[in-house]
């Protein structure tokens, strides 16, 4: 039995995660949720004084915005769409007959105007673009959302539906790169305060196909993405629990987001994988929070 499956089985046995029969789709116990809530309070305490505007979007987003984002060009393998029955009574009867005999009843489903949100920040950019120019000093936003990535796995740290907490900065190149560095430093300190061993390394997104390899290489060469890595199911291949991304002016140009002087805004974001951080804590300190080191419990619950 590999380390990933062993840890997942233990999480199921203790009830921290609840098996739904689909890899990467899990229920969570109250204790698991309490750890996430405690860590989010730490995030609030760390970044709360920065004056970010809080927004909370649902786990689905406008399909037209999704198409404009270009996500399907880079990550078609991860995307999830929402389809629904839109037929008449005859179509309904046919659907029920398919279900009764075990045939594929989804063929008649039609795409709706909603797709599953791939990252917490994706609905933000068109929202801000509609406001017009950013105020002097740019913008800072605090986001949290369930996100979807179609990558079923036995690795409990690679879930298909998971929560992402983000801070997004919009401003000049200097503004957003300073923001990113600040959060890289903060992220290391936050993880150390809860007893987690971390490393930060340059990274790339999982771009699709042959052209994607070039995009990934460019992203790494320009140091556009860093990840904070913590061992969860592998010591040799630790898991990315935070990411620090500099988008240059790509989103600003795509969505028409401008600074007060009319120049195109640069953007950067820091993302916390909330389930992954909780899993890192349970893997490191044990599955019973009452047995966690006093220092860690104090950092999380006071």
From TrEMBL:
EC identifiers of the protein: 6.2.1.n2
Biological source species: Ferirhizobium litorale
Signal sequence range: none
Domain of life assignment: Bacteria
Keyword Ligase carried by entry: yes
GO molecular function, a single term: ligase activity
The protein's name: Amino acid--[acyl-carrier-protein] ligase
SUPFAM superfamilies: Class II aaRS and biotin synthetases
Keywords in alphabetical order: Ligase
